[in-house]
Design goal:
Helices cover 29% and strands 18% of the residues. It is globular, with a radius of gyration of 27 Å. The chain is an alpha/beta fold and 897 residues long. Among the domains are: 152 residues, 3-Layer(aba) Sandwich (Rossmann fold); 297 residues, Dimethylsulfoxide Reductase, domain 2; 132 residues, Barwin-like endoglucanases, CATH 2.40.40. A seven-stranded mixed β-sheet has the order 5-4-25-24-23-6-7, with helices on one face. Helix 7 packs parallel to helix 15, helix 9 packs antiparallel against helix 12 and helix 17 packs across helix 19. Strand 21 and strand 22 form a beta hairpin. The protein contains 28 helices and 35 strands. Bound molecules: iron/sulfur cluster. It holds the Pfam family Molybdopterin. One of its GO terms (molecular function) is molybdopterin cofactor binding. Keywords: 4Fe-4S, Iron, Iron-sulfur, Metal-binding, Molybdenum, Oxidoreductase, Signal. This is Dehydrogenase.
Length: 897
């Protein structure tokens, strides 16, 4: 079936054409942004003359939200450009921003509400879409939702992913909470193990690198520049830093542009933990370099640890103890008479032998010599020594810097860890050890180092920061004990630290609830922006799960794999059309001119909506009001947007549109009556954050950095007690629970695993990374022909499987060969080979994730290889502590017949 014919392009709102139509559209106002009163005489894009530039922003990556302007001629958006007034991107823009025009006019979109007429469901089964009215579509959905609410709200499963249009995930979560189902799964993050260490060390969901002041940057499986291709402040900050002379050391199986500003250390996949442990070894056992003042004052390194690895505590108050060298005795960590604290040595407290955490840390890396690490990483011992010495010297321990009149420690070094290192087996601990190395030289939360991306959300326990997410979501597993049956389908209780419960567990629990101690079935599935068929490692299991659920609906943009299983689809605006607010500040990387930048961007559709589509949040709100959740939703929405106690708080008794909520939010932020009308003209509003709030160093005096990961250890201890008490084992880890408990260690520790165990048969490693034109699939990048063209014309042709020349020659393979790659886990994928010296000797590179199989998507979406089929979450293959699957696997390769 031809995709363009699947849904007739007849629309509820007529697509306006011609000058008269534009005038009419402008008169409507509510639908069409008036934009800047700038009549153009010539097009800067070489297109038609005349027209109007309408303010917008991009937001199709998660690094930043570039200010954009969309040129509209006769009601048609014809060009996108960077907004030169925007303080972040200053007029620049990457291909993803420019390509959004293609999404707007994408003929493969859903164009009207549809219901399936074919009850059979499958990835290659034509749903037999039939266009229906909005009233009929919403009637079917709301009735099903009411029925499941009345039967058992747990039988509803929400599934959230980044999706094509970057939905407001938290907004969905509000509704989930109100509805009363615990079943909220993330399809965006089966590989997101990267959030735990930032929570521990920086009070933040993602950390960002202060390259404005950094001089020596080590990237560990993290793309910082060209591959992420952020076009705005972050990219400029990197360029400025390199001009200043910042050295970048890329530790990765795949080289990238950043390495041209320093060096590339091609590492054996899975060896990252050994690399950072050996750095700690060189610092503490060879160079004897560490920032003692920082460790004493700002971390739990001086806390006294018993032989059983628990804190030694004051018998009266229960508070952790430290050793006061001046007083020659133990005191509580917050004693006002504290003198100099011991970092080393052995003492006796409460009749028990104890040591400061720092001493334990030092002992834990004693055997992690560069020679030991060289075997596991493929990086020469002398290179590890040299890099560590350079890092230690550039850390300038003891130096200070004054920024905006505020005096702070200056530590211009950073190990920046990313998905490539964090999402392998023991990856969560790898990130922790990398940040531990940063902390050893005092480079956490200070200028030049790794800092927080979002504001401090301090949860302090025993004077030490601990993971906010863990506190909110996983505290019950720690404090409230274990319950059978499970409270949810996600296996959280077995993965007490899992931020993003793996999809495979969720899918497995839908198919076979009993195996996961669940005593009910899922009746209604509501995936939003979620595509587990592409994000998960087991497509067959996803198919089985979606086939089992009686009713699935979505608000969707394109005819992807998930929509193939839907019973009703409500068509959604494209990314450029959505009415949206996003922060102005930048996340992953920041420079001197934007570090204190904060504010909000606003956008709405620059043209009359092209098809009969909707704003997702409006559907959620309408449904909530229909189901009688209005007062609750309004109260929670006020809380989410920080409107409580202000004149802009929502009235519990009223029914709102999303536009009205945005209006209240904007006015609450910008003040002086600056609402949607003002933002339509200006596009964004900014203000400056005090410099003390940009660096956590100040706040660390309240909550110390947990270089000794006591809390993880305690979670593991309680998990073990609960599992043993109830006689249960984690599905997939039956008979191996000892390995699960061993992951909850408070110290650096190397554990062998399927990736590090040698294999003669599977003699290569498969690795994967994000590429510029395909970041998380946001903004409908997968079926955007402009972006696909960009990829194919890149020198490296990122749709191909990349192999080192020597590895190719050994196997008789050549550039352009069609090959089949088989995984140690049983999966396989196919693609075309690219021979390149940018790959580590024993690794195969799979840039991004391609190979959609949904038949009604733009055929361009089928190009590329499907990487995740090489991975596995089965039979104990996922990392038990985090719930993540390993992004790398051992594989073998052969030429396709
Ligand atoms: S994708 Fe990101 S970097 Fe590119 S234009 Fe959009 S917001 Fe800017």
């Amino acid at each position: 079936m031809d995709a363009a014919k699947v849904v007739p392009a007849t629309t509820r709102r007529t697509f306006l054409k011609g000058g008269a139509a534009l005038a009419a559209a402008l008169a409507i106002g509510a639908h069409v942004a008036p934009g800047k009163a700038e009549a153009l005489t010539e097009s800067e894009g070489g297109g038609k003359e005349g027209g109007t530039w309408v303010t917008s922003f991009c937001g199709t990556c998660i690094w930043t939200n570039c200010g954009l302007e969309v040129k509209v001629i006769d009601g048609v958006a014809v060009e996108v450009r960077g907004n030169k007034d925007h303080p972040s991107n200053k007029g620049t823009m990457c291909p993803r921003g420019a390509a959004q025009l293609m999404n707007l006019y994408n003929p493969y979109r859903f164009k009207a509400p549809v219901k399936r007429t074919n009850p059979e469901k499958g990835l290659d089964v034509d749903p037999g879409w039939q266009e229906i009215s909005w009233d009929e579509a919403k009637g079917i959905i709301f009735e099903k939702m009411a029925a499941v609410r009345d039967t058992d709200p747990r039988r509803l499963m929400f599934m959230y992913g980044f999706g094509d249009t970057l939905h407001e995930g938290p907004f969905t979560k509000l509704f989930t909470g109100i509805f009363g189902t615990p079943n909220y799964a993330m399809s965006a993050g089966p590989l997101c193990e990267v959030h735990h260490a930032p929570q521990l060390f920086n009070n933040t969901f993602v950390d960002r690198i202060d390259v404005g002041y950094c001089n020596y940057l080590i990237t560990l499986g993290r793309n910082m520049g060209a591959q992420a291709a952020f076009a705005s402040g972050p990219a400029r900050a990197m360029a400025d830093a390199w001009k200043r002379g910042m050295k970048t050391v890329v530790v990765d199986p795949h080289s990238n542009v950043e390495a041209s500003h320093g060096e590339w250390l091609p590492i054996t996949p899975g060896g990252d933990m050994a690399f950072v442990m050996s750095m700690a070894n060189v610092l503490l056992h060879e160079l004897d370099v560490y920032d003692a003042v920082y460790l004493r004052d700002r971390t739990n390194a001086p806390y006294l640890i018993q032989d059983d690895l628990d804190y030694a505590r004051d018998a009266g108050t229960g508070k952790p103890l430290v050793w006061d060298v001046s007083a020659g005795g133990a005191k509580t960590y917050d004693d006002e008479t504290l003198g100099e604290l011991a970092l080393t040595g052995s003492y006796t407290v409460n009749g028990q032998p104890v040591e400061p955490a720092f001493e334990k840390i030092k002992a834990s890396v004693k055997d992690a010599t560069p020679e030991w690490a060289a075997e596991k990483t493929g990086i020469a011992a002398e290179t590890i020594r040299r890099i560590t010495a350079e890092f230690a010297e550039e850390a300038r321990i003891g130096s200070i810097i004054v920024i905006d009149g505020v005096e702070l420690p200056y530590r211009p070094v950073c190990i920046a860890t990313g998905r490539g290192a964090a999402n392998t087996m023991q990856g969560m601990r790898t990130y922790y050890v990398a940040d531990l190395v940063n902390a050893l030289v005092g480079a956490i939360g200070v200028p030049g180092s790794v800092i927080h991306a979002d504001g401090p959300k301090f949860v302090v326990e025993d004077g030490v920061i601990h993971d906010v997410l863990m506190a909110e979501t996983f505290l019950p597993a720690y404090d409230a004990g274990f319950s059978i049956p499970f409270k949810d389908l996600t296996g959280k209780q077995f993965s007490a630290l899992a931020k993003f419960p793996i999809l495979t567990t969720t899918m497995g629990a839908i198919v076979d609830p009993q195996k996961y101690f669940v005593d009910y079935d899922i009746d209604v599935m509501f995936p939003i922006g979620a595509n587990p068929f592409m994000a998960d490692s087991s497509r067959d299991l996803c198919v089985a799960a979606f086939q089992k659920v009686p009713f699935t609906w979505t608000v969707g943009y394109n005819m992807d794999e998930t929509s193939m299983f839907c019973d009703v689809v409500l068509p959604e605006h494209s990314s450029l059309e959505r009415q949206q607010i996003r922060p102005v500040d930048e996340t992953m990387t920041v420079g001197r001119d934007t570090i204190a930048l904060a504010g909000v961007n606003y956008k709405e559709s620059p043209v009359e909506h092209v098809y009969d589509t909707c704003q997702y949040e409006d559907i959620i709100m309408e449904m909530a009001y229909y189901l009688g959740y209005g007062p609750k939703l309004n109260a929670m929405t006020s809380g989410f947007f920080k409107l409580v106690g202000t004149e802009f708080a929502l009235d519990p008794a009223k029914e709102y549109t999303y536009a009205e909520i945005i209006e209240n939010y904007l006015q609450s932020i910008a003040g002086n009556g600056k609402g949607i009308d003002w933002f339509r003209e200006h596009g964004f509003y900014t203000y400056k954050v005090p410099i003390e709030e940009c660096y956590d160093y100040v706040a660390q005096s309240v909550g110390r950095v947990p270089v000794y990961n006591w809390r993880d250890f305690m979670v593991g201890r309680h998990l073990k007690a609960n599992c043993e008490k109830w006689g249960v084992e984690q599905p997939g880890w039956e008979g191996r629970m000892g390995e699960v408990y061993a992951e909850y260690t408070p110290l650096p520790e190397w554990h062998d695993n399927f990736l590090t165990d040698p294999s003669d048969e599977f003699d290569l490693f498969a690795v994967n990374w994000k590429i510029s034109p395909r970041i998380l699939g946001l903004g409908g990048q997968d079926e955007n022909p402009w972006l696909r063209e960009v990829v194919e014309n890149l020198e490296f042709d990122d749709l191909r499987i990349q192999i080192n020349p020597a590895a190719a020659e050994e196997r008789g393979l050549r550039d352009g060969d069609r090959v089949i790659v088989e995984s140690q886990h049983g999966g396989s994928t196919e693609g075309v080979l690219k021979v390149t010296g940018l790959m580590q000797r024993n690794s195969l590179g799979f840039p991004a994730q391609g190979g959609h199989v949904a038949p009604f998507m733009n055929p361009t979406a089928r190009r590329g290889t499907t990487y995740n089929q090489l991975l596995s979450a089965d039979d104990g293959k996922y990392f038990p502590e985090s719930g993540s699957i390993s992004i790398a696997a051992r594989v073998k390769i052969r030429k396709a017949e």
